[in-house]
Amino acid sequence: MTIKKKSRVTSLAAGRPPTARKPKSISRKATKALINTHHVLEKKKAQAIAKGDRAAEIAIESEIDALGGIEKYQLASLQGQRLDRGGDSSHILMEWLNSMDSTISSSAGAHLKMLEVGALSTKNACSASGFFDVERIDLNSQSDGILQQDFMKRPLPKDDSERFDIISLSLVLNFVPDAMGRGAMLLRTLDFLKQPDTQYSSGLRTFFPSLFMVLPAPCVTNSRYMNESHLETIMNALGYVKAQSKITHKLVYHLWVRKSGVQCPPATFKKTELRPGHSRNNFAVVLSGSSG
Ligand SMILES: C[S@@+](CC[C@H](N)C(=O)[O-])C[C@H]1O[C@@H](n2cnc3c(N)ncnc32)[C@H](O)[C@@H]1O
């Protein structure tokens, strides 16, 4: 198998389904503010639900609706994928794989399956590469090639033919409003990935089966409850080993390769303060259970 040369999306219009109307561009500042406000409201909503406070839940829902709901949030996220704003995150994954080009090229016949969770476009770099058979899901599908489905409710695979070589969670884990939910999402990736002992040619074995994960950089660089080494400890406990990582001022990218089973007994990770200070955010991942 060869990796087709990256056909970079050159404009937002090129990454949009042909039937969709051209949305109005939102300024960089407004995009960031809208995404942040949406995350804060989703978090407050999750807290209201946890407390059983239905009145607060309804009030917060109407605030989310007034902002334009998930559609406006997704539009803002798509704006963030514009080339002039850094491009879609999957081009980093393709850069990593292209750096292995010769080894991967010699792996003719490999048929790699990707599950893209939180897909906004069918034309991002990993789709355009031709390297993967991509199955795309999102809570709110924006296009024909994207199945409307909650990853946390996706039926479990019956056998390996329904499992994936790679899962993409790009800017999705931080969308989950609570730390337990994030832990559950990470655990659930294991149900949908092929086993660590899957036979790959030696070149592919370096990269698969794996989880491509992208987070806003401050989740790792400025959280009270998370830093790079804590994230790595959690991922290691799930059987993942860091194969690649990259940090920019906005985003942190990781490729986690599944190398072993989950630690037995499964490790527990609580919300523990690692980096005190007033100006920190509260991004955290809590793991409290066994794997599927
Ligand atoms: C910020 S957007 C990220 C889009 C794109 N992956 C990117 O990197 O720009 C987050 C998306 O994740 C989706 N999402 C969040 N939780 C999800 C879940 N449990 N199942 C499926 N999609 C989910 C949301 O609907 C939203 O469209």
Task: Please outline what is shown here.
The protein has 292 residues and is α/β, with parallel strands linked by helices. It has helices at residues 28-51, 54-66, 69-80, 90-98, 101-105, 125-128, 179-192, 202-205, 218-221, 228-237; strands at 112-117, 132-138, 146-148, 166-170, 210-216, 240-247, 251-258. The chain has 2 domains: 28-83; 88-258, Rossmann fold.
Characterise the protein shown here.
- The chain is α/β, with parallel strands linked by helices and 292 residues long.
- It has two domains: 28-83; 88-258, Rossmann fold, CATH 3.40.50.150.
- Helices cover 34% and strands 15% of the residues.
- The chain has helices at 28-51, 54-66, 69-80, 90-98, 101-105, 125-128, 179-192, 202-205, 218-221, 228-237, and strands spanning 112-117, 132-138, 146-148, 166-170, 210-216, 240-247, 251-258.
- The chain has a seven-stranded mixed sheet, with helices on both faces.
- Strand 6 and strand 7 (251-258) form a beta hairpin.
- Helix 1 (28-51) packs antiparallel against helix 2 and helix 1 (28-51) crosses helix 3 (69-80).
- The radius of gyration is 19 Å and the shape is globular.
- Mean pLDDT is 85; it is low at 1-22.
- Residues 70, 74, 77, 81, 89, 117-118, 120, 137-140, 150-152, 170-172, 175, 214 line the site of S-adenosylmethionine (SAM).
